[in-house]
Amino acid sequence: MREDYLEIRDLRVEFDGFVAVDGVNLTVLQGDLRFLIGPNGAGKTTLVDAVTGLVPATGSARLDGVQLLGKSVHRIARSGVGRTFQTASVFEQLTVLQNLDIAAGAARNWRTLLRARSGIPPTVELAMETTGLTALRDRPAGELAHGQKQWLEIGMLLVQNATVLFLDEPVAGMSGEEREQTGELLRRIRRDHVVIVVEHDMQFLRSYADSVTVLASGKVLAEGTYAQVQADPRVQEVYLGPGHTAEPAPALGEVL
Amino acid sequence: MDAVLGQLYAGLSLGSVLLLIALGLTLTFGQMGVINMAHGEFLMAGAYTTYVVQQVVGGAGLSLLIALPLAFLVGGLLGVLLETTLISRLYSRPLDTLLVTWGVALVLQQLARDVFGAPAVEVRTPEWLKGNVDLFGAPFTKGRLFILGLALTAVLVLGVVLRYTALGRRIRAVVQSRGLAETSGIDTRATDRLTFFIGSGLAGIAGVALTLIASTQPYMGQTYIVDAFLVVVAGGVGRVRGAVLMAFGLGVLQATFAYSQSVSTAKVLLLICVIAFLQVRPQGLFSVKSRSLV
Amino acid sequence: MIGSATPAEAAAAEVSAPRARGPWTGRAAMLATYAVAAIVLFGAAPAMLTDFRLRMLAQFLCVAMVAVGIGLAWGSGGMLTLGQGLFFGLGAYIMAMHLQLSSAGPSGRPAFMVTGSDLPWWWELFRSPATALLGIVAVPGLLALLLGLSVFRRRVKGAYFAILSQASAAAFALLLISQQNTIGGSNGLSSFRQFFGFALNDPVNRRMLYFIAAGVLIAMVAVVHQLRRSRYGELLTAVRDGEERARFLGYDTAMVKVVAYVVAAVFAAIGGALFVPIVGIISPQNVGVVPSIGFLVGVAVGGRATLFGPVLGSLAVSYAGSTLSEQIESGWVYVQGFLFILVVAFLPGGLGSIAAVVRSRRRRPAADELPRGVPEPDAPDPEPTPADVRSGGA
């Protein structure tokens, strides 16, 4: 089986003269759990927006060699790019099951669409088990707790049959135990997906990142393992300001 | 040449009426996101105010000058009343606002019918606004010139108020970030009411202006409201400059179509133009916040 | 492992268990409802009402057809269609043209037309019954497809869509008024003698028209019922509440919305087409801005997001309108206006939701209980998490 990869070259996003993403190069392979970090306004979410088609960008972003930029949002999604959002975005009036069923069904034809759902698709069943939401199947998503909504969103990502998964702050607001479970889940899915996580939580990053890319002012500042990035004086400068290079890693988390 | 000028004048005249109505909507719809279908009825109230003043004062010229500020007050107070009783409960439900205010419009129309009767009432035009002036060799009625002047004055005053006064800064602050404005000590509720007062008051003034060129009757507001909303939609949300351009643009366009076609064909062509325009420039009609979608 | 449910989840599951009704109880209730509707419409009403009242009911049924479509587009899909008069009118005028041509005989001219003026070519399209019936569905359907695609693809939605659709109805009414010589202008079209070969002055045939209207209405409700319970119905609601999110899942949301919009348009057109032989006249007054909003009143009052609400609300409002305006003319306008204001502002779920609102008021504040037309996007406000701040220093 060949490996999937996402290759971003010279990506630029400009809003009214303000350059939010400035010539980013980034390659992520299947099996590599990549974390994207950087101070506020570094362009992390904008980068994800550009690759998923929400904001126009120049340069190139290819999934297994296929150009993504310039396509509409839903076509990019169908090409195999899925994402979650900082604030969990689920269909609040629909039940957990309905949410997952919709996420799993973008490729359905009209004949299937016009029938009622009979039984639960196996992928949906599996996603509910994986995310621990089986018991809440018939709950409207709007009634779920914050962490449950985030898991539902991850579940939707899983059944979407995407190759590239962007997760925007997946563990924000989760308890320690929930973070651990999410981290384990990410580790498992990276085996057959290209996974890119935007995250502020350094503890989480240290535990689960295979590799880290640091963005600052729209540019790639550093890339490597957690240890490599942590040791990079430029990264420390961005986070702590000039002259604070002495104190190593743990402080990184403190300021965030 | 005369024909071209004639159309241009007809377009400018229609445009200035649309502009007067759309200016108020720019504030209430554009800046506050409230779709007030009763805006046309505030205009109607302004027109009837002129009528009542004329009945009391007598002289057409003097009563026109009295009616202008008075209609502003009447329209504005009606607006504030509507805002505090109903609209303030519906800020998170813009479509429902539209429906509720339509119900209000219905009631106001019937009220006018019951008070003043269904037929149009006669509002006399002052002597000094009768007749034509010659502009570049083509006639322009004085009444329409007056409305054009009134519309431009309203734009100017509104522009100055929004840009340079403390009130204007407050309004813009609330529009841009309600939460931030609140934490920096702005009374957002009072600002809402004031914005609504000004917007609705402008409708009242538009009503006074309309008595010069149209008949004053209970359903007069309905004639212009749809076109005025189109002006605001096509002009871009909350943009005074966009409203000015679109009002005159649509006015001239409609006059041109009406010259070669019929008035109604012009309306249809106009609508097609607006939809086509939105194909090219849908900006401002949708906004996406990527960090939270639903 | 995430799979292990926390105690809180287990408790939640217990609470939610009774919610999941068995498919049979739901289906039985539905079948019973359809049966009652059929008995009332096909048995009780024709037996108890005079010919005059039955004709009136038939007219109300036609208006209710528009309401069923609006219920789908607005209630389930969140598209506030303020211009259904456009489609109602298209269906009605196509039917009216056909009826006039068939009443006038094979080579005859429509009654209103001045001698000497030529019959426009587009009248000829609807001379044959087959093309007329096709036109009633296809013309409004295609127009809705075109309009819908052009606005939804550009992501025009919410209030902007409502205003554009309203403007389209306004323009259509004006267009009709201006065509005095070709389509009867503000007088509209009337004096139809026969309906596909059946004489319209025969009371038996008028009864048949009523039965057709009743059957069509029930069929439409059944269609909407199937759409609502299908995967498409779930998808439509998902698009209503989170269009962008659905797009990120790979759905062409414009197409999803267009389908509901076209169905609503076709329903309105069929309602218009049946309205013509039943009422005997169609004029621009039936298709403009005011009647277009009028179609909405019943939907709002009955409950936009429910299956039967739009039909029941529409019938009730039509009935109340005709009864009250027979007695006090201006009174009905006030009643209609205030009813509309109160229901939309304070009971957005419709009158049928009173019980639910009262119940939930007793339990908890009912702020977010009811379906919303346009859900506002939440402010992008990632909550600061104390855990984040602490974790590094620990």
Describe the protein's topology.
The complex is a heterotrimer of chains A (256), B (294) and C (394).
Chain A: E1 5-15, E2 18-29, E3 33-37, H1 44-51, E4 58-63, E5 66-67, H2 73-78, E6 81-83, H3 96-103, H4 110-113, H5 122-131, H6 146-159, E7 164-168, H7 176-189, E8 194-198, H8 202-208, E9 211-216, E10 219-224, H9 226-231, H10 233-240, H11 250-255
Parallel strand pairs in A: 3-8, 3-9, 6-7, 7-8
Antiparallel strand pairs in A: 1-2, 1-4, 4-5, 9-10
Helix pairs in contact in A: 3-6, 5-6
Chain B: H1 2-31, H2 39-57, H3 60-85, H4 94-116, E1 132-135, E2 138-141, H5 142-164, H6 166-176, H7 178-183, H8 188-210, H9 220-235, H10 240-260, H11 263-280
Antiparallel strand pairs in B: 1-2
Helix pairs in contact in B: 1-5, 1-8, 1-9, 1-10, 2-3, 2-4, 2-8, 2-9, 3-8, 5-6, 5-8, 6-8, 9-10, 10-11
Chain C: H1 7-16, H2 23-48, H3 51-76, H4 84-104, H5 121-124, H6 129-153, H7 158-178, H8 180-183, E1 189-190, E2 194-195, E3 198-199, H9 203-229, H10 231-241, H11 243-248, H12 253-279, E4 281-282, H13 289-302, H14 309-327, H15 329-346, H16 354-363, H17 386-393
Antiparallel strand pairs in C: 1-4, 2-3
InterPro entries (chain B): ABC_transp_permease, ABC_UrtB_bac, BCAA_transport_permease
Organism (chain B): Trujillonella endophytica
Subcellular location (chain B): Cell membrane
Helix content of chain C: over 70%
What summary fits the major beta sheet of chain A?
A: 6 strands, mixed
* Rg calculated over all Cα atoms of chain C: 24 Å
- How far the N terminus sits from the C terminus of chain A, by CA atoms, comes to 40 Å
β-strand percent of chain A reads 15-25%
Q: Could you tell me the mean pLDDT of chain C?
A: 81
Q: Give the integer mean of the pLDDT values of chain A.
A: 86
Number of strands of chain C: 4
Overall morphology of chain A: globular
Q: Order of SSEs of chain C, N→C?
A: HHHHHHHHEEEHHHHEHHHHH
Pick out the low-confidence regions of chain A.
Answer: 244-256
Helix content of chain A: 25-40%
